[in-house]
Please model this.
Amino acid sequence: MTPVRAAALALTLLLAAALTACGVRPTGVVTGADPATGLTRGLRLYFVDGTGLRGVSRPDSGLRDLPGVIKMLGTGPNRTERESGLTNLVELGEIDVTARGNRVTYRSPGAFFDSDRDRLPNGQLVCTLARAQSYLSSKDEDRRIRPDDVQVTLDNGERRFGPYRCSQFLDG
Model:
């Protein structure tokens, strides 16, 4: 073998090794973690599963006001959502919801709201109302509000609970 051929062969082997040895080693099957949770864009209703609150999308809801979202929450999860383990713990009574900017008050005389901030029905209401207020405000660019900036107060006619933010009820 001539020195030129030997050099060409060595260069070829060196390039082949460099191109095939990129440092990535083969692995077995790697499973992913749980999907991300938290606040995302669009209208979401919050229901309960075995681990806590779970938001479900309602992209074509036709929502026009906050009492409407409470009524949507009251209908509970759809069939597919129920089959995946979601349930509704909110018992609706009288619906009176007012909002001013990033503050929302839900009044329902005689309703049971627990002072423990980790109560799931409270979380359903707070997160659903916070998301809805943000969603409704997004139609007006001058008053756009982020869901995690919305504060919700629950009032049963005898006592006020909150104000709460949705993040207080989400696992994190």
About this structure: The mean pLDDT is 80. The first helix runs from residue 3 to 20. Strands lie at 44-49, 52-57, 96-100, 103-107, 151-155, 160-164. Residues 28 and 119 are 42 Å apart (CA to CA).
